[in-house]
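re: ur question from yesterday

yeah so i grabbed the chain u mentioned. its 413 aa long if i counted rite. heres the sequnce exactly as i have it in my notes:
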Amino acid sequence: MKFLTSFVITLFGQGVVLVVGFLNAVLITRQLGRAGRGEYAMVSFLVMVLGVLFGEGIHRTNIYFTSKDKSQQNVSALFSNAIVLFGVITVVFAGFSLLPDAIFQLILPGIKRLYIQLGILIALFFIFGRMLQGIFLGLQQFWHYNFAYIGPIVLFFFFDVAYFCVMKHLTTTVVLINYSLAMFVIAVTALLVLIKPWHTPLMIRFRPDWNALKLNLNIGGRATIAYLLLFLLARINLYIVNYTQPLEQVGLFAVAANIGSLIQRVPNVTGVVLFPRVSETEGKKQMKLTLKASALAFSIGLFVSAFFLIWGKQIIIFLYKPEFAESYRALVWLLPGIVVLGIAIIFNTSLWGRGFPAVTLWAPFVAVVTNILFCFILIPSHGIVGASQASSISFFLFSLIIATYYFRKHATS
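ran it thru and got these structure tokens back, copy pasting raw so excuse formatting
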């Protein structure tokens, strides 16, 4: 499948996620208010951290090794290894959910134990889904990938709307239960689509390959660290705001961060399509593909950022209620960094496709440390605006490092 076709299919999927996810976020925010939105944001943060720590590595290696060898034997081995890992993760998460309240409050202060346990459950289904998505992407089955990716968001929205229509209100507990149900249903459905149990003989067999599993864990470890650092670069500010500010401020900052993540969708979808293609190409063709993708991501990101810079406050008040108007100031300071980060993500994804060189680890690490330092300097005096300022500073630093390395690397190769 050509890059443009793959991009359009995946962009459509991301568009559905963008629209449906945004509408659901608006519904949730309007129903839960500032404090409730803050609770939901922190549980979502927990889900993503656990998802990255335990699932992103195997997701990335599944893409990489499936794109290299699409044979039934190799796909069966990768799938079987994923099932083994998922079983281990389930046991670990079960133990995690039984930790005492004191530890939960240390990890996420102000968040109820039930919410944290539901977050762990959501993360478990999320991880399983990511494992399967990696195989779909490696096979370049973008329709199946997009179903597994879009499905939970659409079903989550459907559950929230259905409950709201019947009960006329939403609570944090209801929202998190709906989230977990949506993840579970789509994960099981994606599993059936992959293994095709109605086929005789079976398309996918349970045949773990322990040597391949070791290799997956080795490369997956680097992928996990790289992606975790990139996630923390984008989201650690929310966590620090929760530690230093009331939940109401977390809710306000979460709205700004959510709009920022919407703008980031274009680089993300470009990276999703680019990663398996970069794994298959080399030299000038690889660089041409990367530059084309980065130019597209930058252009669209700049346009959307300008739109929110001009009309963002009115949109926030209209969608989220006037009580969230303060989110606009945080968004304004977040926008410059988001535009620049969009380019860096494309370069970084291209480097990921070349085996996760060391710069994909130390560059985001330096940026995350810088982000944390500026958070503790700026948040006490500027609140959530300071959190956005710290983000943009660290985004610029990360982008400078990655872009410099990328062009120097290609200039010498």
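noticed a couple things. The chain has a mean pLDDT of 85. also The chain is about 85% helix and 0% strand.
anyway ttyl
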